[in-house]
Amino acid sequence: MTELPKTMAAMVLTGHGGLDMLEYREDWPVPVPEGDEVLIAVGACGMNNTDINTRTGWYSKTVREGTHAEGGAKGFDEITEESGGWGAGLNFPRIQGADVCGRVVDAGPEADKSLMGKRVLIDTWLRDWSDPMNMDKCGYYGSESDGGYAQFTSVSARQVHAIESGLSDAELATFATSYVTAENMLHRANVGDGDTVLVPGASGGVGSALIQLSKRRGASVVALSGESKADQVRDVGADWVLPRAPDDLRAAIEAATGRAEVDVVADVVGGDLWPQMIEVLCRGGRYTCAGAIAGPIVEFDLRTFYLNDHTYTGATIVPPGMFADLVGYIERGEIKPLLAKTWPLAELREAQDAFLQKSHVGNFVVLPPEV
């Protein structure tokens, strides 16, 4: 590329609501990198639940439903503009999309010029670099800043990681959100050699990442998945694959593993099965959560929690350095992508509608027009 264009194709979120709030534009201004920012020509951008949750306003405390297909397509009536984001209210219009693989094509005056021309991934957590451990000062790329559902995106060079890999841009775009979320969950639950980890929702992006990253740590995995996806989940590395919602989870686990309990529950599902998941945690077991796609409101018996000396951790903001670790795992071939399908950027509405049907295994990825 010899000369950068002034405008680009982008999918622009115009407000909280249904799929109609996504507007495809071909005249959106190309961002100009300032300060330590770099400009990236986007090769591919992965999809994840955060995009849909943010668009619909599902993070609002007034929403008590899961991220089901109807709500994900139409949005939720009960939210307010100030409460719909994962943290603070969003500013619109906003370009979403966090899971970018692309090449650096321009740099601001204070940016690291050695990144020019390199293929890169973007760390999705925006930080105040004068106070990087302060979670209250963190934001999410594609939420508190414009993201990668466009031909170009700009971000601080500190967020950018060069990567050497034979994987395609689309394959590399499956990793960022799903895998760093999973790694953060396992880190907070202190998963290690000899642990048995229960992974509900094992066919999704985070679920399939949890399987691989648990195995990397030396743990065994009990995966919950629909029957039609069981073979693919097993191929990812699960030691045992059980039905998505067994009538008696404890009995199902014992029949499969010979042990009625697990050491860790790594959950992004929640919903009606949640009490059973807690009941199968062993004494001293750990529960870690980074989602609630089946529903955020659950029945919680405090006696199960305190009498069994459980530890519960939420896992959202990722500590500095974890994304760089993930890049190393990819480069060394310790984890593999699970690319379900690619979609043109102009068909993002259709892609999100298909994503909400939950009939796929792994990740969907969006491809902008070539530049």
* CATH architecture assignment name of the largest domain: Alpha-Beta Complex
Name of the CATH class of the largest domain: Alpha Beta
Fourth-tier CATH superfamily name of the largest domain: Medium-chain alcohol dehydrogenases, catalytic domain
Helicity level: 10-25%
DSSP strand (E) fraction? 25-35%
Into how many domains do the coordinates divide? Answer: 2
The CA-CA distance between the termini, in Å, is 8 Å
What does it look like?
By secondary structure, the protein is α/β, with parallel strands linked by helices. It has two domains: 7-174 and 337-367, Medium-chain alcohol dehydrogenases, catalytic domain (Quinone Oxidoreductase, Chain A, domain 1), CATH 3.90.180; 181-314, NAD(P)-binding Rossmann-like Domain (Rossmann fold), CATH 3.40.50.720. The protein is built from eleven helices and 18 strands. Strands 3, 5, 6, 9, 10, 17 and 18 form a seven-stranded mixed β-sheet that branches. It has a six-stranded parallel β-sheet with strand order 13-12-11-14-15-16, with helices on both faces. The chain has a three-stranded antiparallel β-sheet with strand order 2-1-4, with no helix packed on it. Helix 4 (176-188) crosses helix 5. The longest helix is centred in the middle third of the chain and has 13 residues, at 176-188.
Write the layout of secondary structure elements.
Layout: E1 7-13, E2 22-29, E3 37-46, H1 49-56, H2 69-74, E4 94-95, E5 99-107, E6 119-122, E7 125-126, E8 139-140, E9 152-156, E10 160-162, H3 169-172, H4 176-188, E11 196-199, H5 205-216, E12 220-225, H6 230-236, E13 240-243, H7 249-257, E14 262-267, H8 274-279, E15 281-289, H9 302-307, E16 311-314, H10 322-331, E17 339-344, H11 348-356, E18 363-367
Helix pairs in contact: 4-5
